[in-house]
Amino acid sequence: MSIEKINHFVQSLNYEQMYSSGSKVKLLRQAIGEYQSSLGLQRLEWTEHGLVGKFIANKQYDIKNTQLFDLLENHGVLSKVVRIKLKQLNETEKLLLQEFCKVGNEYLRFTPNRGIGGHNEGELSVYRKNITNKNIYELLDQWKHYKRIYSSFFEQWESIRNLACKEMLRTNQHKITLPVGKLSVVIPDPNIDTDAAYKMGGGKLLRRSGKINMEQVRLYAAKGYFSLSQVYKHLQVENIQTKYLLLTLKSERNMMEGLVQQNNRYSWINLQSEAAWEI
Q1: 149 near 141, Cβ under 8 Å?
Q2: CA distances, 233 to each of 77, 82, 274 (Å)
Q3: Could you tell me which residues are beta bridge partners of residue 46?
Q4: Is the dihedral of CA 200, 205, 211, 216 positive or negative?
Q5: Taking a C-beta distance cutoff of 8 angstroms, is the pair 62, 49 a contact?
Q6: Percent of the chain predicted with pLDDT > 70
Q7: What average pLDDT score do residues 42-49 get?
Q8: Fewer CB near the last or first residue (10 Å), C or N of the chain?
Q9: What is the mean pLDDT of residues 114-123?
Q10: Residues 189/88, Cβ–Cβ less than 8 Å
Q11: 274 CB-near residues (< 8 Å, 6+ apart)
């Protein structure tokens, strides 16, 4: 049984090793990022190690902007680019839209008993001091070492956890207490059919309770409903967060290829839409 495998994974100390190696990966990434920052380089490649470090700026926009909602509604796509969750509605709206709910994918939450897993501050403190004496190449070697360990354990854990979740749903069990901790099936707050919500409460309801999905906005821009320049004219930057990524060159290549494929998809959609508008 998958539930018994959860127990075995934790009792065999695999769970603790997963957390320990994961914590070391974070400490090493931070140290490598600080080294790269001291050089003033946004991207730094260590070819011999097959790794690359890069700083990425993530812009956070004010997507509750009234002008943006006006633009989307005036072009007839507001209900296509907004997401609404049940908890964002009042009781009357919840009742009226209950049949138009779509439940998200359930997942399993494991709450370990006290003293199991988590961070061993003593061990981490010693390791934190230890890495200050190492050069950048030793840090990179250790990052790769602990990253492999963490990824191996994490893949096992996710597989067991997903199977245990299915088993609990199949046997109609939502909570189980094990010798090592507690298992709980978490059912996410359902999403609402936004077309139904728009028919019921119009743009006012979507503006109050909805959250704009920028990926969908880009999709409808590619379809020719409006231009992205029109969208960004109404977007104000609220915050810019810089994130440091440390990844293999292969992972970076896959990431870039994914972006290229996405842009190509949007370009193809745009060409198809232009042809359709001309008919």
Answers
A1: no
A2: 18, 19, 23
A3: 51
A4: positive
A5: no
A6: 93
A7: 96
A8: C
A9: 72
A10: no
A11: 224
Whether the CB-CB separation of 165 and 185 falls below 8 Å is answered with yes
pLDDT digits (tens, 9 = 90+) for 158-176: 999 999 999 999 999 999 9
What does the alpha-carbon distance between residue 36 and residue 9 come to, in Å, rounded to a whole number?
37
223 contacts 269 by C-beta, under 8 angstroms: yes
- Give the strand order in the sheet containing 51-61: 43-46, 51-61, 237-248
What is the pLDDT, as a whole number, of residue 267? Answer: 66
177 phi, psi to nearest 5 deg: -100, 125
Average pLDDT over the chain, rounded to an integer: 89
What's the pLDDT score for residue 271?
A: 57
Q: Which two tokens stand for residue 123?
A: 């061990």
Angle at 52 between CA 50 and CA 56, to 5 degrees: 160
Q: Which residues contact 111 (CB under 8 A, 6 or more apart)?
A: 181, 182, 184
Evaluate the CA torsion angle 91, 96, 97, 103 in order and state its sign.
positive
pLDDT at 76: 93
Q: Look at the block and give the residue holding tokens 């880009």.
A: 218
Instruction: Give which of 60, 59, 58, 49 is closest to 252, Cα–Cα.
Output: 49
pLDDT at 152 exceeding the cut of 50: yes
Q: Tally the C-alpha atoms within 13 A of residue 275's C-alpha that lie toward its C-beta.
A: 6
Average pLDDT over residues 15-37: 94
Across 227-233, average pLDDT: 88
Whole-number Cα distances in Å, 154 to 50, 163, 258: 22, 14, 24
Residue 184 tokens, joined: 């709980």
- Beta carbons of 139 and 28 less than 8 angstroms apart: yes
